[in-house]
Design a protein that fits this description.
Elements lengths: L1 E3 L3 H17 L4 H20 L15 H14 L1 H4 L1 E8 L2 E8 L2 H6 L11 E11 L2 E3 L7 E7 L2 E8 L9 E3 L4 E8 L12 E5 L3
Parallel strand pairs: 3-4
Antiparallel strand pairs: 1-5, 2-3, 2-10, 4-9, 5-8, 6-7, 6-9
Helix pairs in contact: 2-3
Length: 204
């Protein structure tokens, strides 16, 4: 699932994707991101290598400039993971270990692109401030339960199917929410509106 905050930044990113996808043959947001990475590589080649392509080198070898490029690319491509930690979430007696997506990039990516989401796992999206929002299943390969939450209580649950069309339909939140939890489809099939949501650190 991909989460989109109601923000000007996300709107501009979506608009840029749809404007450029045919010309640059972007299949998804990841392709667009990689395109941006190559722009950075070319900029560093102009700065450090007289505009010539860097010679491909294995990790840990080569001139400082090539190492700098590798580090920059790694930071961009793994930026989401750096902003994700884990917590345990329990609702109606069902407990999962959820990655916590706190950055805009991590929330935008969600669980899209994964071939599987193991039972007992999921992703937690904290929303600040609380807001009306929506989710979609663009490039998501497995069905998911989406739990809408506000003030520590469930306000709604919906099961969404993978989507390969473009654009994918969007699922609006049932009012203002301050968190979203997603997990493999069926995990929260018996969850009722109003159920308490308990969170704790995985270290406890």
């Amino acid at each position: 699932m991909n989460y989109y905050a109601d923000s000007d930044q996300d709107g501009r990113i979506r608009a840029a994707f749809y404007a450029g996808r045919d010309k640059y043959r972007w299949r998804n947001m990841t392709d667009m991101q990689l395109h941006g990475v190559m722009g950075l590589v070319e900029s560093l080649e102009r700065e450090f290598n007289d505009g010539e392509h860097f010679e491909p080198m294995p990790p840990g070898t080569g001139p400082r400039a090539a190492a700098a490029v590798a580090a920059a690319v790694a930071i961009i491509l793994t930026g989401c993971a750096a902003d994700v930690d884990e917590l345990r979430v329990t609702i109606d007696g069902v407990t999962i270990t959820a990655e916590q997506a706190t950055s805009t990039d991590a929330q935008r990516e969600g669980l899209s692109g994964r071939d599987s989401v193991p039972d007992g796992t999921g992703m937690w999206f904290p929303l600040e401030p609380a807001q009306r929002t929506e989710v979609w299943m663009q490039d998501t390969r497995v069905p998911l339960d989406v739990v809408w939450i506000r003030d520590g209580r469930v306000t709604g649950v919906v099961t969404l199917q993978p989507c390969s069309t473009d654009p994918c339909p969007r699922e609006p939140s049932p009012g203002i929410v301050d968190a979203i939890l997603e997990a493999p489809a069926g995990t929260f099939a018996q969850t009722t509106v109003g159920a308490a949501v308990e969170r704790r650190s995985t270290d406890e």
